[in-house]
Amino acid sequence: MIEKQTGKQIKYLRTDNGLEFCSDEFNKLCKSEGIVRHLTVRHTPQQNGVAERMNRTIMEKVRCMLSNANLPKSFWAEAASTACFSINRSPSVAIEKKTPQEVWSGNPANYSDLKIFGCPAYAHVNNGKLEPRSIKCVFLGYKAGVKGYKLWCPENRKVVISRDVVLMKLLCFLTYLLKTVPIKKIKSRTKREIKPPKKYAEADLVAYALNVAEDIDANQEPSNYSEAISCEDSEKWMFAMQEEMESLHKNKTWDLVKLPKARLVAKGYSQVPGVDFTDVFSPVVKHSSIRALLGIVAMHDLELEQLDVKTAFLHGELEEDIYMQQPEGFTVSEKEDYVCLLKKSLYGLKQSPRQWYKRFDSFMTSHDFKRSSFDSCVYFKKNNNGSFVYLLLYVDDMLIAAKDKGEIRKVKAQLSEEFEMKDLGPAKKILGMEILRDRKTSKLYLSQKGYIEKLLCRFNMRSAKPVSTPLAAHFRLSSTLSPQSDDEIEYMSHVPYSSAVGSLMYAMVCSRPDLSYAVSAVSRYMANPGKEHWKAVQWILRYLRGTIDVCLQFGRTEDGVIGYVDADFAGDLDRRRSLTGYVFTIGGCAISWKATLQTTVALSTTEAEYMAITEACKEAIG
After folding, report:
1. Which of 17, 266, 343, 464 has the fewest CB atoms in 10 Å of its CB?
2. Could you tell me if 7 and 69 lie in one domain?
3. CA separation (Å) from 107 to 88, 98, 103, 145?
4. What is the DSSP letter of 465?
């Protein structure tokens, strides 16, 4: 077959001493074809390492497939055949990430017929009018040379080849879960109020990463009025300031009054807690919520559009009396000694984000939208036809998704009546993440290619040699690698370690789960990084250089939420803490992920696994 298919002759054949290879008939065949035989010594599989290692790979898959399908060992041959079928259609690094099938035939592999081994299947049968039209079977694999599926029929204990088959892919997995996870009756106990867990550490990480990312994207903007009117773009800045002042007057943000005695004019950085403000916390939508919405949009082929609120903070109502000096360059004539008594929240005030959110939340709930109990910036409304309208808010950016564009236009009209809105049309970019959509293939992509290009340029890694892994195994990072000499301390003082790690964090938080472990490792040494730590950061940047086009892909699949979790026991070289890693997917695409050190030192692998599962379950239930 090989000679006919490739036109190349077999010159040597290396096998073990199995009886099937040592028969007289087989030896005569090889001799007649001019094939030289090489036999390995007994119990020395290393003499034929490539073939023996592939045999091991196949048998590992066979064990997993039989166990998952709950089939007896007698089906090992069918499982091995199916394993070979999948291996031949799986990318391999040894052949430049192509599949063996593609290299052999020159045609790309076809994945449309791939099914789960052992899943329930119903094959069509020609029975009488009142008889069942199908018979229940078990999927065993593929028949070579035939466009049909190989099935096992338990009823008549025969193998059936059929083309007209309905396979229950999801049922196989659910049945396995129900068989392996016993459901016990739980005793009821006194109910208590359940509050969502506080995640200060994760929120701080995201906030830090976002600040660094904004520094990368931001241009050198003037910091005050004097710099604005003296820079090259002074005319543009004057126009922008005039436009902003018109918005302030339009919203009736302040009244000009004389300053009361014994009162100071407050600026944002000089506000006194308890006097000028009380509560300042304002929620923003989680990145996982954005990705979850994109997954739902792709899965159900929803419309997705974007809005922006103009001067959002000016819509908030202040609860305190705050006085402000008149803006420089816009002082009212003959009232130079007057000050502004603020009636609306203003940019720079600590309570402005919270007041804006309270106003927006009140508006949404008054229009029949419900706020998610898991994310305070996610709103949804069920229509009379059973469809949903979703709205996500990140400060002044909004994403709206619905099945019908008419529903989106209706929500836009309601928002425009209450706030000054800017309609951005179909969603293309949110928080620096590009949203790309291909309606023909029902695919939606979330990419940060533009951000990564800026990141590489900032740290002079645009021309670096790419690598294929986020962090190589030879990096054994620990605090012992921190600077020990004055020369090392001086050298590292000029290295932008914190900025680089923060920039990588933002890429990881938004769309690159493959960076989770690597960023977690290098972020532990931001207080006192050494040269080896910096080399690890540069390695991650080189990895981004080679994977700049990698993005999250959402498709129209039926898969629901699936979570994966694992633990690395005592992987931390400093305190021997274990590492927790998890990822959750919707429709096969990652929406939530994390890799972090466990707070408690685990005493065993089992304990580390339990703590990892606990963290994953907390994320799963919100």
Report:
1. 17
2. no
3. 12, 11, 8, 17
4. P
> Could you tell me if 9 and 75 lie in one domain?
no
Strand order in the sheet with 149-153: 158-162, 149-153, 134-142, 120-124, 165-167
Of 550, 578, 600, the one marking the end of a domain is 550
Spacing of C-alpha 417 from chain mean position: 35
273 and 378 share a domain? yes
- Full residue range of the structural domain in which residue 453 is found: 449-550
Helix (H/G/I), strand (E/B), else coil: 92: strand
Q: Could you tell me if residue 334 is inside a domain?
A: yes
Alpha helices in 218-339 (DSSP H): 225-230, 234-250, 287-300
- Interatomic CA distance for residues 455 and 461, integer angstroms: 8
In this structure, the answer to whether residues 374 and 391 fall within a common structural domain is: yes
- Asked if residue 467 belongs to a domain, the reply is yes
**Which of 6-20, 37-51, 354-368 has the largest mean confidence?**
354-368
Which of 499, 531, 550 is the last residue before a domain boundary? 550
Distance CA 339, CA 337 (A): 7
The Cα–Cα gap between 590 and 562 comes to 9
Please check whether residue 437 lies inside any domain of the structure: no
User: Could you tell me if 30 and 48 lie in one domain?
Assistant: no
β-pairing, 158-162 vs 388-394, is: unpaired
List CB contacts of 163: < 8 A, sequence separation 6 or more: 147, 148, 149
Q: Dump pLDDT digits (tens) for 536-576.
A: 999 999 999 999 999 999 988 777 789 999 999 999 999 99
Domain count, the chain: 5
Q: What is the DSSP string of 347-383?
A: TT-TTHHHHHHHHHHHHHHHTT-EE-SS-TTEEEEE-
Cα-based distances in Å from 479 to 51, 301, 518, 537: 44, 49, 16, 15
- List the one residue out of 171, 106, 111 whose CA is nearest residue 138: 171
Which amino acid is it at 490? E
Concatenated DSSP letters for 176-227? HHHHHS---PPPP-------PPP-HHHHHHHHHHHHHHHHHH-----SSHHH
Residues 404 and 461 in one domain: no
Cα 570 from Cα 602, distance rounded (Å): 7
Distance CA 72, CA 81 (A): 16
Within its chain, how far is the Cα of 271 from the centroid?
39
Helix (H/G/I), strand (E/B), else coil: 402: strand
Task: Give Cα separations from 203 to 208, 294, 514 (angstroms).
Answer: 9, 22, 20
Count of CA atoms in the C-beta half-sphere (13 A) of 255: 5
Same domain, 403 and 478: no
Query: Which CATH number do you get for residue 368?
Result: 3.30.70
Whole-angstrom Cα distance, residue 169 to residue 149?
A: 14
Do 256 and 348 lie in a common domain? Answer: yes
Q: What is the pTM of this model?
A: 0.59
What would the pLDDT profile of 192-228 be if each residue is shown by its tens digit? Answer: 555 544 444 455 555 555 565 555 555 556 666 666 6
